[in-house]
Amino acid sequence: MPQKLPAAIGSDAFINRELSWLEFNLRVLEEAENPENPLLERMKFLAIFSSNLDEFFMVRVAGVREQAFGDGAPQDFAADGMTAIEQLRAIAARTQELVARQYRCLRESIGPAMVEAGFSVMKDADLNAEQRAYVDTFFQERALPILTPMACDPSHPSPRYHNRGLYLGAMLEHEEGLGPKQLFAVVQVPQVLPRIVVLPGSGSGKASFLLLEELVAARLPELFGGFAVKSWTTFRITRDCDQELLEQESDDMLRLIEERLKARQRGQAVRIEIAAKADEAIAQRIIDDEDLHSGSEDPGDAGYDEVYRIDGPLDLTGMWELYKLAGFEKFHDPPFTPRMPPAFRQRRDIFAAIAREDILVHHPYESFDPVVEFVTSAAKDPRVLAIKQTLYRTSGDSPITRALMEAAEAGKHVTALVELQARFDEANNVSWARRLERAGVHVVFGFLDLKTHCKVSLVVRNEREGLKRYVHLGTGNYNPATATTYTDLGLFTANEAIAEDATALFNLLTGYSQGHAWQQLIVAPNDLHRRTLELIDGQSARAAAGKPARIFAKVNSLVDHQVIEALYRASQAGVPIDILSRGICSLRPGVPGLSENIKVRSIVDRFLEHSRIYIFGEGDEAKVFLASADWMPRNFFRRVEVMFPVLAEPLRRRLLDSIIPTYLADNTRTRIMQPDGSFDLLHPAAGEDPVRCQVQFMNETDLSAAAATKLPSLEDEAAGRPATAAGKARASGTRQRQGGLKGRKSRS
Questions:
Q1: 243-262 b/e with 16+ CB inside 10 Å = b?
Q2: pLDDT reading at 628 higher than 90
Q3: What CATH superfamily classification does 523-737 receive?
């Protein structure tokens, strides 16, 4: 019998959100360390690790820092009991460990492997005559006109270093001429030039290159004529970029966002990265100027280190350029072309296909083209009267936004909800908003205090029987570029109840229209949180009554404490619960007397796991939902989100019998969460076939027929039943296609 859940759950039942995120980024780093991944894919994961860490400092660390040191900042406790200062200390200690591990991977594993593969990272002093002539010309013609040498003295105060800009700092000396005898100076490494300068002689599977900062540093005497360079170093500042709009007032949200983008470059410094062998006088000057805490000091109020001394090239996000070099395909994952969903293969009229049946599309394994075609066809179709579209993140040259402009110019009623507060995509969205407005699209920006994060497209078409509405709902953005690298699910439907709800949703977004009785969509901030708790508690009641019960949740993050407490109650009632959380998880699984029926998995692989899937119940009674929302307070209360049901039985079975079991069967890229918040990498047991879910999804020729050769269903998994013979054969085929993947085990 399950033990009764304690009346009051203590702080030790929760894992700190920020520390949990760092463990997620460790899982990214482990993919860089994994020698089974192709070489340039490993480099890609190093770059992603750095990019992730940048955003973490700009937003999360900046927020905790403000709590700790802001004027009159309340010393609130996190749910796990830590104060802001305690969190900063723990974050800094863990991040220092992870960054050291990242660069150790570069120096000791990826670096030597790249040399063996034919990549040469050159120093300026080692260039041959041809290479030196090329580099000198590059400097004179492309770099020198852009570079700005900046002296720092009483008449030239230290510049405001740009957020994430890469700089060279130098100590200079001279005997005669203008200026002091000794001088500190800086120069920004131009972001408009390539970080990787490919040298002559590259090609035929080999590449020699020079880092741009190395090229510039070797020519500092030319930049600072008359001075001798006594020492120099690279450094990089990360600033607080979490500029809130909630307390600001403006009659023009577009202008407010543009002002915020400028303010980002002026935010408080939260981290400095500097070369490990930097002249200490240079390092201390910058640290003091930026009012950063150094572990070598005793700041008293914090006792933590914001200085990261790097033994290697700073800012490994620049390695994306190396990843994209042409001619090195053998060091990448094998190319993959998404297949066309079966429902769209034979029908030229996309609306006829959707009118015939609901259609589920699984990206990136199935093409994003039907999503684009849904909007582009609507723009051209003379029977289409109106298009309504949410845009959270989209690509730089988006065919969807271009189609919206064409539709407006053709006289159709077009409304676009552009979310200007999509973090770090604001500039792109501001640009698109202005272009859409000029084309005649009705552009709205949602609410100042709520981000519009739902993904909805609505088309109104005049047909023989009257007006008919077609809807696309998704778990991911309307972005053709990321649709090839993110896993997401989209639903096309002409279901009238869903269409009425979608219409009401747009009326809410554009005109604050309220009071609609939602039939199928579950909307935040209205009732998504309440309904989620009800669905979880409903499974608890079923289990307590001896009835079959089941909860499955695939999320990006699980943080909301009320949801976690409801899951703990469900576990105590005997509900088997599977959580697949890519990133943060504040729940502790497997704790006796609390969560012994909860298993938490995480998958980090070639594609970014981004889809949100929620299952409540077993078999024919299982309620199946997809959503734009994670189980986080921000999704429940500070965003407009949509959770939508999958109603068509073939689509429900596809999720229950194929997609979800394939995720649960993965034993090569799945990591199992331990009660202490660490993760163990799963590996096949003796005699067990390796299953890598993303490879299996890629190898399936027709997912619509997957139920016929299914892996164990949710019901099978819960009951401990083995796979069907067809499922075993399918898994064996996967093993052969994967080339005998070897299992690995690691401890975070």
A1: beeeeeeeeebbebbeebee
A2: yes
A3: Endonuclease Chain A (3.30.870.10)
Residue 64 has pLDDT above 60, yes or no: yes
Helix (H) or strand (E) holding 84: helix 84-105
Residues 6+ apart with CB under 8 A from 120: 206, 207, 208, 209
Radius of gyration of the chain (CA): 28
Q: Is the pLDDT of residue 73 over 60?
A: no
Nearest-CA neighbor of 211 among 47, 322, 104?
322
Question: Of 614, 333, 651, which is closest to residue 484 (Cα–Cα)?
Answer: 333
Give the residue extent of every domain in the chain.
38-331, 342-519, 523-737
Dihedral in degrees, nearest 10, Cα atoms 735, 741, 743, 746 = -140
Do 118 and 206 meet the contact criterion of CB atoms below 8 Å apart?
Answer: yes
Range 247-255, long-range pairs (CB < 8 A, 24+ positions) = 253/420, 253/445, 253/448, 254/420, 254/430, 254/433, 254/434, 254/445
Q: How confident is the model at residue 730 (pLDDT cuts 50, 70, 90)?
A: very low
331 pLDDT exceeds 90?
Answer: yes
Does the predicted TM-score (pTM) go above 0.85? Answer: yes
Q: Give yes or no on whether 342-519 and 523-737 have one common fold.
A: yes
Of 702, 696, 703, give the one whose Cα is nearest residue 729: 696
Q: Which CATH superfamily is domain 342-519 in?
A: Endonuclease Chain A (3.30.870.10)
What pLDDT score was predicted for residue 154? Answer: 60
Q: Which residues of 335-351 are buried (b: 16+ CB within 10 A; e: fewer)?
A: eeebbebebbeeeeebb
Span 248-307, pLDDT tens digits: 433 454 555 555 545 544 578 999 999 999 999 999 999 999 989 887 554 444 468 999
| Residue 344, token pair as written in the block | 């769209």
Which of 384, 383, 379, 423 shows the shortest CA–CA distance to 404?
Answer: 379
H or E stretch at 236: strand 228-239
DSSP state of 482: G
Mean pLDDT of the chain: 86
Residues with catalytic roles: 453
What pLDDT does 427 receive?
61
Contact at 8 Å (CB) between 292 and 274? Answer: no
| CATH 1.10.10.10 fits domain 38-331 | no
